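pasting for the record
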Amino acid sequence: MRRTTTFSCVFLLSSLTLLANAAAAQTPQSARRTPVVAVVEKVAPSVVNISAESTVREVDPFFGMFGLGSERPSQSLGSGFIVDRNGIVVTNAHVIEGASRITVTLLDGRELEADLLGSDRDADIAVLKVKASNLPAIPLGRSSDLMIGETVIAIGNPFGLSNTVTTGLLSAQGRTVPSERGERLFTDFLQTDASINPGNSGGPLVNIGGDVIGINTAIIQGATGIGFAIPADRARRVVDDLLRFGELQPLWTGARLLSIDPELARRNGISARRGALVFKVFPDSPAAQAGLQEKDVIVTAGGHPVASREDVTTALYTAAAGSPVELEVRRGDRALRVSLRGVRPPQGLGLQVLQRDVGLSVDEARGGLAIRQVTKGSPGDRRGLQPGDVILGANGQRTDSAEALGREILRGLDRGGVLLSVQRGRYVYTLDFAL
């Protein structure tokens, strides 16, 4: 009896398989071309694989003090997409960081060496150029009209698996997420449950219409069902600056902001528990012209709630160049609306801030920037800096000119501080200063 039953089950399964295959064979291909399939056919030719090669130096554990060690090649893989048919490729900055050679592989198998036109670590965006034309390209779309719950599609090369497609929903907007090493805070990310893994970084996140709404970035390792992307509106501003200047140009408003926490609210007699406190307004600055005053509390920027200082910065950098951002401000018991416009900083402003807030004046010197003068009683003086010390870098970037140092000081204004690498003799010290 048992043998007969087993035979019947096998026969039934075989029959069902034959019927399913027959049904599939009879289903026209057009009926299977869903909106997702149409999007993939449109976008996939523009998605590329990026291989970044670098040299890693390993210090000998026993003789490292004598400068002995070894070097080995290292390779990282990521994704990107072509935004201009003449060879402009967008990816994440962390994908190509430290690379000595970058190779872009197209869907048709062509391998092209790429030049780095510019990158910005704070935005985690880089722009590459390959020597080719008439390439399949897909421009950045919009992220201002997104709907939570709409279908999104991620295309990239997770774990080196070329042109992998994953789908999901747009889970949230405006997520605040720390970078993998915790040195930066991203305040405006899109969140999706489409799988985004190492290798997906730099690939496009698109909507069901095939428009690029974000740039995927795998910044939280080991998270299941959580992926993040840089919104297209924010990315467009960065890409435009990288193409024109090779770097993201800092914006100047003349307002120094602090993120409100319970202690700050108590000290300043503020009833608001979230927002950005206007700590200082520089005379004749855009903030002063907009009517902002010290102790104002910014509660919305560009129509979005403000939970921290970074939210205001994000709104300014997301706006089109030269466009004002509408702010909702609480001044005591009053509610005000002002328009704040970020502008290019005046010439030499960064070094002025360094002298006023840190107490350091510098001169260009061989190998870096030599400290010429340290103001007595200043933060630089209290940390032990002396004339003759050499500033090698700021915020993790090498600064070999006064102009480069000034730019990093202005970047530090957005974050509320600057990290200086200072050399004295054979030793290099890293010092953090509030701005």
